[in-house]
Fold this protein.
Amino acid sequence: MGCPYNAEESAQAVTQPKAAEAIVQEEKAQLDFSQSMSYGDYLHLDAILSAQAPRSPDHNEMLFIVQHQTSELWMKLMLHELGGAIRHIAQDELGAAFKMLARVSKIMEQLVHAWDVLATMTPPEYSAIRPFLASSSGFQSYQYRCIEFSLGNKNAAMLKPHAHRPDLLALVQARYEAPSLYDEALRLLARRGLAVPASHTARDWTQPYVASDAVEQAWLQVYRKPEDYWDLYQLGEELTDLEDAFRLWRFRHVTTVERVIGFKRGTGGTGGVNYLRKMLDVVLFPEIWTLRTSL
């Protein structure tokens, strides 16, 4: 039995598309891009959207690829902002640096929530695509390594995964050999007359950072009189926000990996969850955290 004919609804169905078309015409929206740059042209969407090449026949591999490619794009922006913030701090331009550091923290929030999407992949679904990953692993991300080096977690062993690509090795090594974000922050404190020891302002930047009681005392001077050191106090809190967000990202990484693969070894050869849990103990800006006990 057919539905009763409603002339009024039928007329609306015809006029609504026409009304929508009229709105586009009234707005004088450009519709012909045969001679000018379009949205897709500007963003190189043909290249981006054709960069997903699943190797398995499994439906869920697309999620795995897009998740990691998207994360790499966010990391590219993070490195752009981190590099800018480090340069501005070195030049005593804290206003610009604060804007960039705040943006980095927001990017980290995006990366944290991205794990929620990947966590929809169940263990059987991941097991179906894992053989096709071979030895590829996020552990080998050169952008992530640049981020860690920029934040002060220096480790010479982490240069080796990029030795087969001299172009990438040069990028990672540049970040490895340069002062980190925290190194530049401490040099700034010293320029402002705070008693940061030379061992922490003119050191071998390739070495892992070692916490210092003297550095903690310098930060305590800032935090005890924020009205006298307002921009340095704000810098300390920007660093706190950033490490807080970075810790959340690491934690969500651990829990997502455990949820999807349990305690299997990672495709890159690490201990998987066990390795990631060890990384949770790495503190990037130690005195920023320890000073709070003394306040």
About this structure: The two ends are 79 Å apart (CA to CA). Residues 223 and 233 are 6 Å apart (CA to CA). The first helix runs from residue 7 to 26. The chain has a mean pLDDT of 91.
